[in-house]
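Subject — a protein and its fold
Fields — amino acid sequence, structure tokens
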Amino acid sequence: MTQDTGQANVPFWHHTHQGEHRWPVTAVVFIVIVLQLTLPTSLNINFPLAICGIEFFLLMLITALNPKRIAEHLPTPRTIGLILAALMTGSNLVSTGRLITALLHGGVTDANRLVFSGGSIWLTNVVVFALWYWEFDRGGPGARAQARKQVPDFMFPQMSDPDLAEPQWASRFFDYLYMSFTNASAFSPTDVLPLTRWAKALMLVQSVTSLVVVALVIARGVNILH
């Protein structure tokens, strides 16, 4: 009886769970790789086919090593995942820098191209930061499934108020994708609170990047239309 009471007093997100499926992450990352590949040459990274090919290879390698549920912390797939996230981040930073340079110097004069390029880079920014949040919160998806770290980096509403959560609720990639999207749209945290300094710093960088891109794209778009 005492053991049951103790378990009942432990927050539900502290318990182990079966882990989330790999395929939603794979699908979203694949879409972003395609977006990166289809950017205009002037805004793309050098050797985009080679870089995107490496990203795709790493994505397939992770999927092959851990194809179903991410039920435990596996160092090799996680390391490859971090390398993939870093490569995608670097590629998107280059594209962001070139877009900002082109906007400041009037290098984009076609409204359709501006909307596609700006939207593609902004969406890639959302997914890339979602990957970082997902990979680092409480040690990553495998560590969260094993409940290896009790102190959260992000406080979801379901964690602070269990009455809002469905039974056996656990944060999944879509939760981090939604958090990244709202942070990039509102330029500040919304319903999910960053608790650790690295989480706050990462959200700050994302907000600033998104704000600069959106502001310059809108300003340039208004200028083109007039």
Summary: The longest strand covers residues 20-21. The mean pLDDT is 85.
